[in-house]
Amino acid sequence: MREMKIDDLKDRLTRICKSRFLGDDQRVIFPEPYIPYIPENWNGILVLAEAQNLAKSNNDYVAILNNMSSSQRIERLYYAVKTERRIRIQPWDDGSLQLAVEAALKVNPIETAVSNSVMWSQRKNNGTNRNPSNVLITTSMEIWAMMLKEIAPKIVVTAGAVARDVIKPIWPLKKQINLRLPSPLAMAILAGRTDQRDIESQRKTIQRLLLKYPTIFEKNKRFKELYIWHAITETNKHLNDDA
User: Fold this and answer.
1) Which residues contact 214 (CB under 8 A, 6 or more apart)?
2) pTM for the predicted model, two decimal places
3) pLDDT by residue (tens digit) across 168-200?
4) Is 184 exposed, middle or buried (0-12, 13-18, 19+ CB in 10 A)?
5) CA distance 122 to 232
6) 2, pLDDT greater than 80
7) Domains (ranges, CATH) in the chain?
8) Which of 80, 95, 142, 154 could form a disulfide with 216 if both were Cys (CB 3.0 to 4.6 A apart)?
């Protein structure tokens, strides 16, 4: 997309977000939902994780958001890319989802749009991250129903059950790929259910990505390899089902 088109799209998405601020009664960290990060040379793929972790352990980022204006918080993902060279979506920033889209869809992650399915974050009383409430999930579904019509992605990739449950009911007739969330716990469970020989069937692709992105594999290498296999397997299954 040309810059002018992306700017126009951002304006339309921003207007949608400005119409759906949440009140204090929902006990969210910030009332504003936020727009997805869509690069200028967008490839038509939209990747959605679950929700931003704004727990006490991430108070440094909460402070950054607190110092922003309301409009800036709506564009927080763009701000993170510009100032930090990351998106502030953990499974994307750690490389797991980037490897997944390149391996399974054969696209450049840099040209991929990214966001979270749930647009607000909450904390428990002890300051730890709280799973999204039903109100947050339902309201996020309403916003995404409007935004997806504007964005019109070719494929939506969801990571995690929450993201799948938000998007699937409102995007049922379109191409949607549902992956597990690449958290250490989820990957440990998947590893216990997966034959290593299955993973080795994708060794050529894994090795190519390992050589291309060595720093991504420095942490949790075994799980990153597993996630590549998982992404390829699920993508082939979904796309074949839709064919």
Assistant:
1) none
2) 0.93
3) 999 976 789 999 999 999 999 999 999 999 999
4) exposed
5) 33
6) no
7) 3-242 (3.40.470)
8) 95
